[in-house]
From TrEMBL:
GO MF annotations, alphabetized: 4 iron, 4 sulfur cluster binding; metal ion binding; oxidoreductase activity
Protein name per Swiss-Prot or TrEMBL: FAD-dependent oxidoreductase
Keyword terms: 4Fe-4S, Iron, Iron-sulfur, Metal-binding, Oxidoreductase
InterPro entries documented for this protein: FAD/NAD-bd_sf, HdrA-like
Record's keyword annotation contains DNA repair: no
Native organism: Ruficoccus amylovorans
Residue ranges the record marks as coiled coil: none
Transmembrane segments: none
Lineage: Bacteria, Pseudomonadati, Verrucomicrobiota, Opitutia, Puniceicoccales
Amino acid sequence: MPQHKQSLKTDVLVAGGGCAGLAAALAAARKGCDVILVERAPFAGGIVTAVGLPYLDGLVDPDSGAIVTRGIPVEILSRMGGCAPDAQRATDISPRLREEHSPAAVLIPSTEQFKRVADAMLTECGPRLRILYTGTVCDATVREGRIARVSVAAKTGLYPIEARSYIDATGDADLAWLAECAVEKSTPLMPMTLHFRIGNVHPHPSMKAQMQTVCEQAARSGELKAFYGPHFECHYAPDEIDVHAIRINGDASDAFDLSRAEIEGRRDSWLMFERWKKDVPGFEDAYFVTSGPFIGVRETRRLQGRYRLHEDDILGHTVFDDAVATGTWYMDVHPNSATPGDFQDYKPYWPGPYQIPYRSLLPIEVNNLLVAGRCHSATRQAAASSRVTATAMSMGQAAGHAAALAQSRRQDVGDLHGETVGNALAENGAGIYIPERRPAGTR
Ligand SMILES: Cc1cc2nc3c(=O)[nH]c(=O)nc-3n(C[C@H](O)[C@H](O)[C@H](O)COP(=O)(O)OP(=O)(O)OC[C@H]3O[C@@H](n4cnc5c(N)ncnc54)[C@H](O)[C@@H]3O)c2cc1C
């Protein structure tokens, strides 16, 4: 029988190896589960490696300076030489990775190195963690309220895979949607952004303003539909700029619309590059280094799960008895129109550390599925905060631990109490951030 016709069996299947999925696969395998990680790119890391985004946000609370996402996010940063393994505070992070303009933003030293660190961490788990890069989860069979198996499209055909627990870390809630769980999509969806790098640039103090003027002219003439900033940083060399400026509206959970967005993102990045080269001093000898490789997707489907994290929970710091992760980033909603000079058209408000409950990872309809990362169950405003990288990793780590607990107890993840998951995370140096002094009356 051809290999791909045989059903593969495992304890835990993780769909998507981005921020949440990488952490989920590591957490479950380290607790002794057999895991298959399916990632459609040829590497893990998601937004960091597939889009080239060099930020680990949600790690540091800007007010207290405390690191609020313990466990795998800190471990990854430490494996990249960014901090000690037991880092507790922003001051424990290498100063070269701290941004002067934003005390909460932490830089990832190199998105290429991230690929290698992710490979190393995953392969260190040994044969119990099977990695299937370039595979896409594309179908699910549900029986009696449980996923019975999923189909994975890979080079060798369609693989049926059966697991006790499934973790949807696709960012787009692909698996929850395929399993016919309730999901929602807001109107409008936040725009997508293609990141790109330009080399042999000679930055000078007025360059950013001149780049912005060029973009504004292109927007006025209708050549650019939208853009932001433009912002750039010299992450890799003093003469190489990493640009975030592209704003493409669309629905990335629609394969054809996503393809259109990829094409428009490349068109807009080349338009900017060629105009800057022509009109902005410092770009005379510049060349286009690289883009993407994938366009960055901020928002598509979100689970409508057993609890929907609400912006009032974030602003009011609701205490959940099933809290499993901590967020702290502001509600980072990108507008769909041009915002010259800035990311948003509003002033960010920093909420301080808030809790994310286990129930926001659980669908109502299916009992052996968890949904972690930017597609967990949250309102649009709340997800605009909980979607950031380090927070997504914490949710992934919680999901991986829950799947391991379910395996050892021969239960479904949907039957576990989140408090048990929270306690297991705490015993492993992860889970929610507990400030040194808490107000009276909270548990
Ligand atoms: C342009 C942009 C800029 C951002 N800027 C910041 C920032 O500065 N700081 C910050 O912290 N956050 C930022 N974010 C938000 C943050 O990066 C994401 O929300 C975060 O990556 C969410 O993690 P995730 O694991 O849910 O998704 P991802 O990291 O996107 O991972 C999802 C993974 O699933 C894979 N996948 C998808 N579908 C399938 C499938 N069917 N089968 C198999 N694999 C699949 C994808 O290839 C991907 O690797 C930004 C997002 C974007 C788009």
